[in-house]
Design brief:
Length: 362
Amino acid sequence: MSRTAHVALLPGDYVGPEVTDVARTVLEALAPQADLTLTFTELPFGGAAIDAHGEPFPAPTRAALADADAVLLGAVGGPQDHPWNALPREQRVESGLLALRAHLGVFANLRPVVVHPGLERLSPLKPEVAEGTDVLIVRELTGGIYFGTPSHADATRGVSTMVYERSEVERIARVAFDAARGRGGTVTSVDKANVLDVSQFWRDVVIGVREAEFPDVTLEHTYVDAAAMKLASEPTAFDVIVTGNLFGDVLSDLAAVLPGSLGLLPSASLGGDVGLFEPVHGSAPDIAGRDLVNPVGMLGSAAMMLRHALQAPDAADALDAAVQRALADDPTVDLGGTRGTAAFRDAVVDALAVPTPARTPR
Ligand code: NAD
Ligand code: IPM
Ligand code: MN
């Protein structure tokens, strides 16, 4: 019997609507063959919502999310000189994104970084260094310095506070250890415990969770500066990385370029009743409206939605495989290929028609 799922689509700004349009078209092509009925509601969010409603996460959008099985978000924000950025911080686009994550309670942000066999040439690293890269970054998303108080600035001083409660560290550590069990069996916890009390606390709690609940998983610890270096020089040293909100933000943009472009990286944010799925990249105002945005990160996020929120792992595998086939055939312009956004979308839809071999779930 066909299953029905309702997706809240938040296109956002600049390239955001371009990538969500691609995702919708591809999902609509995929749904019948996966025996899925998908319905979509487009909701204002981000800068577009500031223009239409005076705030980035308006009440009607918030209310409509209650009916959704999953939320698919494009990207939000404007160029640095946009009037949206002159608003007080709490009214800005980025604050709306943090409010959305907090509202959904999605504390676990999964950012997989894979250099696929045969696509090593797309990496800016030497192919032999990039080969075999398969890292899952588990970023804590609703705590840490992004949400800690006090937080304020005046003419003489700026203050932000990094706070982690025991329960927050325990639950994100569990997500990472659990993921490691289904993969390489190793978690690297990234912190700055040589300097920050909050990081020493993080490390101690992660060690405790492993000892009590996951003794079969290998746990390593790396300082964030060394982790950045190692991600760029020896990415295959990592299996699952678990880290706080700010370190995870920085490391995931670094890791995102290992496969070749920031535009490739998907994410899933889980832990609440409704999952949030968004590419790691931003609204890329510099390339918006020119058929240049790489939709792969968005399509990967749609696949994660099928896998994690809509219980459709076969459809997720089919989508991932179609994207890989299109990439191998001729990638997008940012990767040195010739395809624009629309041509790549069409290639993925065509590739969906080809039966796919079963793949190992990640
Ligand atoms: P960005 O990720 O938008 O762009 C960084 C660079 O990568 C740009 O040169 C851009 O052209 C390129 N790029 C990004 N995505 C690409 C894609 N899919 N295909 C090809 N090239 C791509 O980061 P930024 O310029 O620092 O930020 C722009 C705006 O986006 C800001 O307002 C920022 O706050 C916001 N932002 C939003 C999110 C989000 O919505 N989740 C994430 C990051 C940044
Ligand atoms: C991301 C983005 C956001 C973050 C910004 C836009 C608030 O950079 O999703 O990585 O820092 O979390
Ligand atoms: Mn980021």
